[in-house]
Amino acid sequence: MSSMSRRGFVKGAAIAPLAAKSIALGQGSAPSERFDIVVAGGGHNSLIAAAYLAKAGYRCVVLEGRPIVGGGAKTAELTLPGVKHDVCSSAHVLIQDSPLMRNDELGLGEYGLEYIFPDPVVHLPFADGSYITQWRDLERTCAEFARFSKKDAAAYRRMITEYAEVGPIFGASAYTPIGFGKPINELLAAHPKGKLWQRRVAMSAWEIIRDNFEDDHCRAFMIWMAYQTVVPPEDSMTGRLAYALVSGRQRWSWTTPKGGSGALTQALTRLIEAHGGVILTNKWVRRLIVEDGKCTGVECGDGSAYRAEKAVLSTVHIKHLVDMAPREAFGKEFIEGVETWQAGITLFVTHYTTTEPPTYAVAGGTISPVASGAMATPERALRVGYDFACKRVNVEEPPLLVVCSTVADSSRAPKGIHTIKVIGNQPYELKEGPQHWDKIKDQVSDANLNYLRRFSPNLTDDKILARIVESPLDLERMNPHNWHGTCHGGAQDPAQTGPLRPVPGWAQHRMPIAGLYQTGATTHPGGSISGGPGRNVATVMLKDFGRSIEEVVKKKA
Q: For residues 23 and 74, what is the distance between their CA atoms, to the nearest angstrom?
């Protein structure tokens, strides 16, 4: 009961994924070798920035601490040989609206990137046996809502239509560096319905969902969708999420990179190397080299050093970045801003290798979608923030996101084998301390699976070949950028968005130390696979170099 479409950027034979050895091309380079740009960290945003800079003719070296580049956009054999799991991100929805993809600015299809757009998009079952399925066809999705309420079906259609009118304004804001364009409120003020949207933006997602929908099934679906950027829907300034997330998936589906989430960062790696750049793995950056008040390079844990003729670009989490140089070099205001940084809502993840995908009962048969989930009631979503504040684990009717990418992309596993990722929200901070996660994580994972089995009873023990459990503490151990278990760099609340991200006064990607720039999820517009921080920092750096991103994207080579 599913179909899918693809967005291929290139015709012809597929390009084989890079192996770890290939990714590390250039490890033989002498540590004293100089580059125009030294990039600390190989996440998707730093690779996007390096790709634009490399295309502009600057020689870049990317230093990644782990064996494979990608950060949160990475695919690896986590459980069994030949089975490819997305380590963190799975859906590349937001980036589809980026100029990078929309205008094909880097030609990533020439380097092997291809996307699949599954149909159905998302399936949400309920305890009473009912369900809502989002299909790529808007009218078909509205019919799902109409089974519960014709008023709610009309509300869904209206919200999708209304957001389409202003979506480009929000997109322009996200893909414009802070200070390089008008603030979002000014942009909205110029729109015929701008005053209404100024109020909506300031409201909470829950207020908008509560006031527009009357049936709790429809409300649960909408609040589940609004939660997909891991921002509490009851918080102020989350109103846009009630529109944006469901609209993005209605338009772009659960956008699935063929071959895994790492296909994006693999393609960027190929582009950088094709333009003379060097990608080095197993290179943990431990210290910034600061000379005469300017950042001129970095030192790695293995003792090697890399010098930059023009600039150093960091995607190191700001909580760690300030420990890589004397604190006085950053200044008191910046340090104080970093000290107040909050992690926000964190994740709890279990990866499974199975012989079947999750299968749900629907009218006329069953359905096995790429993305599904659980949200018992809209009120259950509102309890997550309270549980976090109480440092409390709650496995009662847990809100879940379930991703089975192999339904759409069989290239990720041998025939008859599937990958399933079950994601919940649990606090990093526990009353017993974060280390307590090592004692209880298997129990929490079992509770999530048992709840999922209420809706997908086919996932019995004999169908599970392997699993790996990742608590919020494990996520931090896996990648230091997942500070305190957050995969989005930190909370995306009013105190940590726009001109306040990462620190007031330093939201333009230029750090207090001259020659040092910052990208990644701790910078505007924040986490998720949007590519926004990467493209934005490239825009800033190119301007500082007397160039422009517009001239770079016009280059054919």
A: 12
